[in-house]
Amino acid sequence: MTFDQILFYVFSFWFIASSLAMIFSRNAAKAVLFLILSFFSAASIWILLEAEFLAITLILVYVGAVMVLFLFVIKMLNIDKSTLRAKFTGYLPLGLLVAAIIIVEMTLVLGGNQFGLDIVTAPARHAADYSNITVLAMQLYTVYVYPFELAAVLLLIAIIASITLVQRNELNRKKQSISEQVNVQAKDRVRLVSITTPSKEDK
Amino acid sequence: MMNTFQFDTASLLLALPEIFLLSAIVVVLLLDLFLTKRFKQVTYYLTQASLLITGVLSYNLIGHPETVIFSNSFVLDDMASVFKVFMMGFSMVAMVYSRHYLTQHSLFRGEYFILVLLSILGMMVMVSGYSLLTLYLGLEILSLSLYTLIAIARKRSGAIEAALKYFVLGAIASGLLLYGMSMIYGISGSLNISDISAFASDANLGARETLIINFGLVFLVIGIAFKLGAVPFHMWVPDVYQGSPTSVTMFISTVPKIAAVAMLVRILVDGLGAMHAYWADLFMVLAVLSIALGSVVALMQTNIKRMLAYSTISHVGFIMLGFVTGVVSGYGAAVFYVFVYILISLAAFGIIILLNKEGFEADQISDFKGLSKHSPWFALMMLAVMLSMAGVPPFIGFYSKFFILQQVISAGFITLAVVAVVFAVISAYYYLQIIKSMYFEDADKDITISAPMDIQLVLSINAILILVVGIFPDFWMKLALSLF
Amino acid sequence: MVLWQSFVELVHELIPWFDGSIATILIILIKAIALVIPLMLVVAYFTYAERKVIGYMQLRIGPNRVGPKGWLQPIADALKLMTKEIIFPTKANIYLFLLAPILAIAPAIAVWAVIPFDEGIYVANLDISLLYVLAIGSIGVYGIILAGWASNSKYPLLGALRSASLLVSYEIVIGFALVTVVMIAGSVNLNDIVMAQKGGVMHWYWIPLFPMMIIFFISALVETNRAPFDVVEGESEIVGGTHVEYSGMTFAVFFLAEYANMILMAVLAVIMFFGGWHSPFEGIPVVESMFAWVPGIVWLLAKTSFFMFLYLWVRATFPRFRYDQIMRLSWKVFLPWTIVWIFVVALMTQLKIGPWF
Lengths: 203, 484, 357
What we know:
A: mainly alpha, Four Helix Bundle (Hemerythrin (Met), subunit A), elongated, B: about 75% helix
């Protein structure tokens, strides 16, 4: 067994184990952490496949941003997983059946008899100066530039749509005028009043 | 890295309408941020101006020989250019009607116009899409904008419900479409329409390949039928039409139909034309079901938007009939039908919007009672619209149905034509019902038309066109035929 | 470099009974240790420097009791923290409570793998090392979030919430600011970025990217939770934020991570905008040859020390920002600026201005 293979099996093991742990963990925060671990394992496998840009993007986007927001929401909501699990046993047989069917199908379609090394040769290693990001960028910005731009428009719509839908009207909006805050003078806030202290003779 | 791809200005210029529209969207979006309340109308005028210029740019490209650019993902042919010009024209009319509605219901926001422009961009992408990837992206751009447009009226519970329904069902439809696309891609090895066409029309196509193409085809047809709103994938149509703000309903029911038909033509006619025998059978079933259900269920509606939704379903059935024929003249008749349907539908919704008042939606059929006494001119126009929808000569609606049926009969589907005619007659009942309440019943509430002059003028022209084009339909029919 | 080569050969010779891969692992391990131990020492003495510098700025002496002039103070601190009891709050989630400091320190150290100290001196030469730095750096936030959540206490939770939103916001700013660097250098490899700045002070990127440099430095302060943006700890508001429930070694680990991150940000600023290991005298006729004997790593460390000093200077100078002001700074000031500057850089690239393009 070569070093690469050992690494592959290690990462695959962690990938599968953490995915399972994610599904079965009782605590929502832990589930998110296991999901992060499985993202990491997937990214590591991608690196073994010389797709380092995709691997880093997976970590940067999903682990670095998306899952942070997930945790954020979990903290805010305090999800009680036991209520979500109430019907777990009821659905279990059906779920197991579906899972079994999917596993059988995947084995038939993606298994060794279709994609084994005797049928599909292992992809050759690239030379040391192979740059995954350059190859990807070349494709994206030339051949696929039109779909790429369209995808950007799609993201723009997503931004506009989400802002449009959550924006409150003027009356309910809490707003601060920064220029007003900065320009505030002492005399606007503090009023110095000279109070004549009553002298003893007045009493 | 070897690369055969190169940019040159000449090929970029062929996408000038799209490029201009996208730039205009960005400019309007930024400008809208800085406009004070007093100048909010500027957004509306800029929107109209960008639509107009995009339309003119597309018009200039009519007659350009068919060219494929952006490494086989964008096609410019006459169909694309003509569709774009019509889309711009219809959208401008829709915007004129919308403005009145939006101000009346305090929905007038810059984002509304931006989203409309973005959805139009999506439609243009679909019309010019020459690979499954761009067609899908165009569809998503269109759909995402439409979901948001519906939900923009957040205070109406119906609108949220409609948006959610549309979103969930639309997502499922997109998923089915993608699944079909992946099948086609998997077997043909290309996303490009011309490659797929070459693959599908190969005489030596094996049984395995045919099977997988057909498998994918079923999903593609379901996805397209979902977007068109054909029975049995029509469930979203009535709820979305009724729940959305009327201006959005008007927009959804009109212009996107062009894009849906364009996508249908690109994928099924241009790409999988060789498989016509397979998808025509599916279309036949969908068409008959749509015409029947649309005509019968509409009879029981009291809400005019819901009624128009069912009427749309039956019109979609007629459009699909045109594609069943499998001949160029049949496709031409279908495209003609689409344009006619949009023209009529715009006028119908225009009148509904015209009767709107601040905080009041004239969306019940009873709201039309006694319209002839208060406003004989608009009652007359509603009469023209309704007769046209029912297919009474000399209005345009007659000719569109006539051309379709003519093609269906000459293709040998006589039973199909008879069924279509029977249900068309049934559907005439509910169109006449509206005419009855306009002319023979007394108003139970006060009808005053407070709409500004621009909408009244455009609406009048729109309704007169229904009659004029109905008298001289040849030019438009020839135009529709020349696209294939 | 020659020394290193011979060392590698030595390792290979010493262990002929291992196959190549085991030797590779060993070499990586040795490299890592050779990096981490000095790093930890620097962190320890950085805390000492902080107390001294701020002390002098506030007209105090700072630590001066342990060892000559207080030199042994960090060692004493470390011993004290190690021997203290680790207290677990009763309602805390123990596993996550212990995992949090580990998650904080691991990325803070892992990022250093790709930092080039001199031409050819690095643990790993990754083709996308800049993205690696950003990706791994963004994981550090989990330490803070989990610490806040697992403590099951209100102040840590508030601190964690603040931290999560701050870090996500400022990561975008930092990312955009670094995009301009990548645009000029034409590479996301830190080595290449430094090599592209060869040729003296005028070739460094701080001139064409001056606003980006400022933005990067300020964002780095936020990312490392430093004053004046230390709302995550915010002693006067939320007593100590995420660290409230931590004691002894668990607290020390957070501390280490924070300072390791600070040093990292300083090194990054040098690599991105100040020519990395290049001598500032390059291109100047006489002085260049006079200083030719100085190894690049010395220049890098000298420049880094300056930025580390800036951190302390800023801390001693500015009052704390309010939370919403920090958010506003990110989304309404920095983000538009970075986007505008991307266009400016694109224009400069097209016009081939200066020695940079």
